[in-house]
Amino acid sequence: MNKEVDIVVIGAGPVGLFTVFEAGLLGLNCVLIDNLDKVGGQCAELYPEKPIYDIPGVPFQTAQEHVDALLEQIKPFDYEVFLNQRVETLEEVESENINQWRVITNENNEFITKNVFIAAGAGSFEARRPPNIDSPDDYLGKGVSYAVRSIDTYKDKNIFIFGGGDSALDWTIELAKNAKTLSLVHRRDAFRGALHSEEQMRELVKSDEISLMTPYIIEEIHGSDKVTGVSLKNFDTKEIEKFDADELIFLFGLNKKLGPILEWEIDLDGKKITVNTENFQTSKEGIFAVGDINHYPGKLDLILSGFHETTLAVQKAYQRIHPGERVPFGYTTSNTKLQKKLGVIDD
Ligand SMILES: Cc1cc2nc3c(=O)[nH]c(=O)nc-3n(C[C@H](O)[C@H](O)[C@H](O)COP(=O)(O)OP(=O)(O)OC[C@H]3O[C@@H](n4cnc5c(N)ncnc54)[C@H](O)[C@@H]3O)c2cc1C
Questions:
Q1: Which residues have any ligand 1 atom within 6 Å of their CB?
Q2: What share of the chain is helix, strand, coil (3-state, %, to 5)?
Q3: How does DSSP assign 222-281, residue by residue?
């Protein structure tokens, strides 16, 4: 994939999503890229069911409802989303007039743009690996996974799920329906997930539909080309037992990593990107930083701050695409183009 686009947005959190709206109002198209398997950033990944009370004009909305509303709001506009991939490389492209950027992901998708919006929050979220196993990623897609992307992969398999939080409990309950065998492995017999999920899981243990292995930790993965077995160590007795296994799913939560952003030679203040608050441009022309990732005097890590920041940044992006032109300004209440797209008024 090699594509030219008006704005490349790194990060599909709330601020990245709202960028599509502001860009769309000015007729600009966007590509959104996120390392996660879903849009919504922290809202979707860390606290989907928590209520947010400080979105202007919205007295109460859960974080996932907020993400869903943003998706609804950007429906009329021209954008594409690329998930499950991290932007690794950001490099300047030779051009005659205004400088351009090449953005490359670890899935080798490549985009050329005059405007890069870094809406990367606290960095890309990455699954925590099992701490005592060397190179578990050698088995990635060959019996080791850190998220469940397709339920079918696990049908009629001997599955071991590791973890003690909501994801581990939820996937245990779901995958037990079609697994050959399923074992939930945790280092202690206490879980951090929702009580009703834990109760459901313990019911499955009682009815012999799954095995609960506590207090156990993983000792070794077996298999040359793909996973064929796993050794588990009892935390109390230190005894090690070996089991046949097809699929090992590690659900130990997520780390936030700034990762590649630190290598893009943009001015930073600690782990945040410094910006000019007139247009939220960074130390490099055509690279903007909006939302939690940026820093300036008085910065607050709130969703509404990010919305303001990206609105101003999009104005500057428009000028870079249409040099010398006045940025069209209009209230959405009188934007007939948008209202036609929304079907509020006839074409
Ligand atoms: C528990 C909790 C409660 C909160 N409550 C509120 C509240 O009530 N009100 C409020 O306003 N705010 C609240 N916040 C803060 C709010 O969630 C953040 O301000 C907001 O999510 C920032 O949005 P963002 O789009 O800047 O970044 P994020 O939501 O962090 O999204 C950034 C995205 O960028 C992706 N990314 C990063 N680097 C890369 C890369 N190199 N390649 C690809 N993708 C990348 C990440 O995977 C992530 O999905 C809360 C936060 C938490 C944790």
A1: 10-16, 33-36, 41-43, 46-47, 50, 52, 54, 86-87, 119-125, 260, 291-292, 301-304, 306
A2: 25, 30, 45
A3: E-SSS--EEEEEETTT--EEEEE-SEEEE---EEEE-GGGGGS---EETTEEE-BTTTTB
Cβ-count burial of 333 within 10 angstroms (0-12 exposed, 13-18 middle, 19+ buried)?
exposed
Question: H/E element holding 124?
Answer: strand 124-127
For the CA atoms of the chain, what is the radius of gyration? 23
Co-location of 11 and 117 in the same domain: yes
**Domain interval for residue 72:** 2-125+255-341
For residue 18, the CA-to-ligand 1 centroid distance in Å is 13
Question: What does pTM read for this prediction?
Answer: 0.79
Residue 346 lies in a domain: no
For ligand 1, the distance from its centroid to the CA atom of residue 122, given in whole angstroms, is 7
The verdict on 218 and 276 lying in the same domain is no
Eight-class DSSP state of 139: G
- Per residue in 83-98, pLDDT (tens digit) is 989 999 999 998 888 8
Angle between helix 14-25 and helix 303-321 axes, rounded to 10 deg:
40
- For residue 29 the two structure tokens come to 């198209």
Ligand 1 atom nearest to CA at 43: 17
Residue whose CA lies nearest to ligand 1 atom number 1: 47
Query: Rounded to whole angstroms, what are the CA distances from 272 to 121, 292, 316?
Result: 9, 8, 21
User: Mutate which of 35, 37, 42, 106 to test ligand 1's pocket (most atoms within 8 Å of Cβ)?
Assistant: 42
Distance 60 CA to ligand 1 centre (A): 18
CATH number of 181's domain: 3.50.50.60
Matching residue, tokens 């008006």:
6
Domain closes at, from 225, 252, 279? 252
Token pair belonging to 155 = 């049908």
208 — alpha (psi -120 to 50), left (phi > 0) or beta?
left
Structure confidence by residue, pLDDT tens digits, 119-162: 999 888 888 999 889 999 999 999 999 988 778 999 999 999 99
